[in-house]
TrEMBL record, chain A:
This is Succinate dehydrogenase/fumarate reductase iron-sulfur subunit. Keywords: Iron, Iron-sulfur, Metal-binding. Pfam families: Fer2_3 (PF13085), Fer4_7 (PF12838). InterPro entries: 2Fe-2S_ferredoxin-like_sf, 2Fe-2S_ferredoxin-type, 2Fe2S_fd_BS, 4Fe4S_Fe-S-bd, 4Fe4S_Fe_S_CS, Beta-grasp_dom_sf, Helical_ferredxn, SDH/FRD_Iron-Sulfur. The keyword Iron applies. Residues 18-102 form the 2Fe-2S ferredoxin-type domain. Residues 149-179 form the 4Fe-4S ferredoxin-type domain.
TrEMBL record, chain B:
Residues 1-20 have a biased composition (Basic and acidic residues). SUPFAM superfamilies: FAD/NAD(P)-binding domain, Succinate dehydrogenase/fumarate reductase flavoprotein C-terminal domain, Succinate dehydrogenase/fumarate reductase flavoprotein, catalytic domain. Residues 530-664 form the Fumarate reductase/succinate dehydrogenase flavoprotein-like C-terminal domain. InterPro entries: FAD-dep_OxRdtase_2_FAD-bd, FAD/NAD-bd_sf, Fum_R/Succ_DH_flav-like_C_sf, Fum_Rdtase/Succ_DH_flav-like_C, SdhA/FrdA/AprA, Succ_DH/Fum_Rdt_flav_su, Succ_DH/fumarate_Rdtase_cat_sf. NCBIfam families: PRK07573.1, sdhA_Bsu. This is Fumarate reductase/succinate dehydrogenase flavoprotein subunit. Residues 1-35 are annotated as: Disordered. Gene3D superfamilies: FAD/NAD(P)-binding domain, Fumarate reductase/succinate dehydrogenase flavoprotein-like, C-terminal domain, Succinate dehydrogenase/fumarate reductase flavoprotein, catalytic domain. Residues 63-468 form the FAD-dependent oxidoreductase 2 FAD-binding domain. Keywords: Flavoprotein, Oxidoreductase.
């Protein structure tokens, strides 16, 4: 396959960026999208040019590092992570636009690499169960109904990639935040911190500069792990319940 | 110190010998920390005999933790909970991305919830036997004891393990054992356990007890008078090289499988932290013990950048086969039952498809070498779920393995519900690592190694679902107990700063290496060298090894190293985000580590676990151990680039599990 790539190049957070066109040839349909970019970068290095910076690590769809907007879609045309997108999803001769996540809360570091530290800080605000090592009761002391355990798991699958934010016209992090709130709040172990968790995480999310949610649903469509849209409604209920109980926020 | 050649059974004189193979044998090394007495009481006794640090004094101690995977994340969180000041590092943009996250299958624990005859002693026994009698009994027994606490801890953190309809935890059996002791969270157990540790760590970051440095990579260890006192690290965004000082340093930086270029490791997993610690005096043990995982997706072409593992839990219900005839290219569905060879079930009737990983991998290689492999290039075998779908129904299969089937289909564009999967072995895990004693301390005082970074618990072969157990065991329970003893005995270390000659020298060496990489301006990319060394290692130090092949590799590696420093091209500068520079700097270490791996494989002229020497096999082609000569862990002391290292042997004593030739027939 021969492709025209239009790639966002930006030297550093302060520098202006621009789309730069590259042609790549000899691309196999079995390559992943990132292996196609590897091919481009090998060429660029040999030509003495700066290779395109992009985040990636596990390349099996679980670490959440990769983060490209491809032809306007977060992670591209398939419902998967960029690393699991293969070139068979494209046609010979295609022109493909490659951009970083674009959101006020995710500033560009270089080229296609952004800073997602805001997600870490949302988790730090309450996305945990306080259970210091050694303090745990025997695992079978508390039975958890299978439906609750399955629901917790479904939300815990979030890989923290940020596609939800990138896809949202408002740059909202509601799906990410609700995934963690619902994972922990549905479990008996998470119940003692149920109210403070949702209040603190939502407050932190707002402080980080993410936009508000207008329920466009783009987030759930882009999510490679299928975190469901009703997750947001469930978090809103948790939040209202917590405000009623604790007042204020 | 005596000097002897790499041991050989058949003296080959027709190959070029490099000086590197003329290694010396130094003083034996021994663990002095595990107490005497009944094995089941040793961990209690050690914890009692270890000195403690007064809780009020702990905040005066700084501990550096490098890495945020299961071992590092758990250790950082737990040390901070105890009151220590933790300074932690990861090269990813977030601690949540460590490669532990990709572990699929599960985590072992001797809970005996199934009432199927499991016990701490059985888990201990299985692990020592599975490791082919090359692990230290005291450590393994402790791991089995701790396994039950790990599950309790993770459940308390909200890890959503699979559960039965009654609300209790589900388990499954896993490669190489006959009890059902593996706890799991669908095919994403590593992810869920890692997020548990990450969340505990996040709580401590928010509390100000952990100072977290993301996108920061350790590039050297700072020792003062032979004691670990800090690290040199590079901020990967700005390129700034900085020093960090502490009372103890913990390496939780993972394994070194990426020396093979193609492996199931993440692209950025690397050996730099452990290798540079090795250069500063930490012995490296059993580097040739690498695990080749039998169930990975075969490669598709030259462009392949990494390999993807399919959880071996698939072997519980999938049946592995190849055509009986050589060169049979018919589609799987057209090959009648009578013309299929379910070779694992045939050769190992009692374990069948559940034999340990090393055995399953080698068997796949053998049938492919016979010309009976399937798929492109004949480098694959079938893993077939047709029987399982008939027996359990498609829905039940989907519930158990759905995400794995989806992943397979995304990568190969083949639907495993309709056609059998194709699998082939790939490098997956490294049992070798920095030598540590029972306290997980390396030969450098104050330097500890936990998780895959150390060599301790898996011997020559790791059993499935034991890596997560060991990583969390080391991080949550072992290190936080044993490090107290070291800190209590070294209470008021003199402050070190950048003016100290040893610190200044470490910084200078790091800067010089980076500058040299940028200055060559040659005509080959970092990846081209990485691929070359990786292919060499796969060919000669992979699934099966020979003296002849290892000597070829040992002759070739110094040549590649020389060419590297002549032809490497790294664009850009060191004062910016520069992924090519990161990569090239890691390859510098692979080019030395590869040499040690080959030497270790050459010197160990026996087969054991994942290390198969063709010269040492039974008449029916199984690995033949030679306990009299090789019943030891090989700990190597660094002597300089390309200079023959010194071998220190730790004799392994088996008081409880008597070594026998493994039999899975």
């Amino acid at each position: 396959m021969r492709l025209n790539l239009r790639v966002w190049r930006q030297q550093n957070p302060g520098a202006p960026g621009a789309m730069v066109t590259y042609e790549v040839d000899g691309i196999s349909r079995d390559m992943s999208f990132l292996e196609m970019l590897d091919t481009l970068n090998e060429d660029l290095i040999l030509r003495g040019e700066d290779p395109v910076a992009f985040d990636h690590d596990c390349r099996e769809g679980i670490c959440g590092a990769c983060s490209l907007v491809i032809n306007g879609d977060a992670h591209g045309p398939e419902r998967t992570t960029t690393c699991q997108l293969h070139m068979r999803s494209f046609a010979d001769g295609d022109t493909i636009d490659v951009e970083p996540w674009r959101a006020a809360a995710f500033p560009v570091v270089k080229d296609l690499v952004v800073d997602r530290g805001a997600f870490d800080r949302i988790i730090q605000a309450g996305g945990y169960i306080t259970a210091p090592t050694g303090s745990a009761p025997e695992a079978h002391a508390t039975a958890v109904p299978k439906a609750d355990a399955d629901s917790a798991f479904e939300h815990a699958e979030c890989i923290g990639c940020g596609a939800c934010v990138a896809a949202c016209p408002n740059g909202s992090a509601m799906l990410f935040t609700s995934a963690k709130v619902n994972h922990l709040n549905v479990l008996p172990q998470g119940s003692p911190e149920r109210e403070t968790r949702v209040l603190d995480m939502v407050a932190r999310m707002d402080d980080e500069g993410f936009g508000g949610c207008t329920l466009t649903g783009e987030c759930a469509t882009a999510c490679p792990k299928g975190i469901p849209l009703p997750s947001i409604a469930a978090m809103n209920r948790e939040w209202l319940r917590a405000v009623r109980k604790h007042g204020g926020n | 110190m005596s000097t002897d050649h790499a041991r050989t059974d058949h003296a080959h004189t027709d190959h070029a010998h490099t000086d590197y193979t003329h290694y010396g044998t130094g003083d034996p090394i021994a663990d002095t920390k595990a107490p005497e007495g009944p094995i089941a009481e040793r961990w209690d006794r050690r914890r009692f005999e270890a000195k403690l640090v007064n809780p009020a004094n702990r905040r005066k101690h700084t501990v550096i933790v490098v890495g945020t995977g299961l071992a590092g994340g758990a250790a950082g969180a737990t040390l901070a909970e105890q009151g220590y000041h933790v300074v932690q590092f990861c090269f990813s943009d977030s601690p949540r991305r460590a490669h532990s996250i990709a572990a699929q299958g599960g985590i072992n624990a001797a809970k005996n919830y199934r009432n199927d005859g499991d016990s701490v002693h059985r888990l201990f026994y299985d692990t020592v036997k599975g490791g082919d009698f090359r692990a230290r009994e005291s450590n393994v027994h402790r791991l089995a004891q701790i396994s039950v606490e790990i599950i309790d801890q993770c459940v308390a953190q909200g890890v959503p393990f699979a559960r039965e309809y009654g609300g209790l935890l589900d388990t499954r059996s896993f490669g190489g054992v006959q009890v059902s002791r593996t706890f799991y969270a669908r095919g994403q157990t590593g992810q869920q356990l890692l997020l548990g540790a990450y969340q505990a760590l996040s709580r401590q970051i928010a509390a100000g007890n952990v100072e977290m440095h993301a996108r920061t990579e350790m590039l050297d260890l700072i020792t003062v008078d032979g004691v670990a006192r800090g690290i040199v690290a590079r901020d990967l965004i700005t390129g700034k090289v900085s020093t960090y000082y502490a009372d103890a340093v913990v390496l939780a930086s993972g394994g070194y499988g990426n020396v093979f270029y193609l492996s199931t490791n993440a692209m950025n997993s690397n050996a730099t932290a452990v290798w540079r610690a090795h250069r500063r005096g930490a012995y490296f043990a059993n580097p040739c013990f690498t695990q080749i995982h039998p169930t990975c997706i075969p490669r598709t072409g030259e462009h392949q950048s990494k390999l993807t593992l399919m959880s071996e839990s698939l072997r519980n219900d999938g049946r592995i086969w190849v055509p009986k005839a050589q060169g049979d290219t018919r589609p799987a569905a057209q090959i009648p039952e009578a013309e299929r060879d379910y070779y694992l079930e045939r050769i190992y009737p009692s374990f069948g498809n559940l034999v340990p990983r090393d055995i399953a991998s080698r068997a796949a290689k053998n049938v492919c070498d016979e010309g009976r492999g399937v798929g492109p290039g004949g480098q694959g075998v079938y893993l077939d779920f047709a029987d399982a779908i008939r027996r359990m129904g498609r829905d039940k299969v989907a519930e158990k393995y759905g995400n794995l089937f989806d992943m397979y289909e995304r990568i190969t564009a083949e639907n495993p519900y309709e056609v059998p999967m194709r699998i082939y072995p790939a490098v997956h895990y490294t049992m070798g690592g920095l030598w540590v004693d029972y306290d997980l301390q390396t030969t450098v005082p104050g330097l500890f190694a936990i998780g895959e970074a150390n060599f301790s618990d898996h011997g020559a072969n790791r059993l499935g679902a034991s890596a997560l157990m060991q990583g969390l065991g080391d991080g949550y329970f072992v290190l936080p107990s044993t490090i107290n003893d070291y800190l209590a005995r070294h209470p008021h270390q003199e402050a070190v700063d950048d003016t100290h000659p040893e610190a200044a020298a470490a910084v200078r060496e790091v800067r010089d290496c980076l500058a040299k990489l940028l200055a060559v301006d040659g005509d080959r990319t970092p990846d081209s060298f990485h691929r070359e060394i990786g292919e060499l290692m796969w060919e000669y130090c992979g699934m099966s090894r020979t003296e002849e092949g290892l000597r070829k590799a040992l002759a070739r590696i110094p040549e590649i190293r020389e060419e590297f420093w002549r032809r490497i091209k790294v664009p850009g500068s060191g004062e910016e985000f520069n992924q090519s520079l990161e990569k090239a700097n890691r390859i510098v270490d692979y080019l030395e580590l590869a040499e040690l791996m080959c030497l270790d494989a050459l010197h160990r002229a026996e087969s054991c676990g994942g290390h198969f020497r063709e010269e040492s096999q039974t008449p029916d082609g199984e690995a033949a151990r030679r306990d009299e000569e090789f019943g030891y862990a090989a700990a190597w002391e660094y002597q300089g680039t390309g200079a023959a290292p010194v071998l220190h042997k730790e004799d392994l004593v088996f008081e409880y599990v008597h070594p026998t030739q493994r039999s899975y027939a």
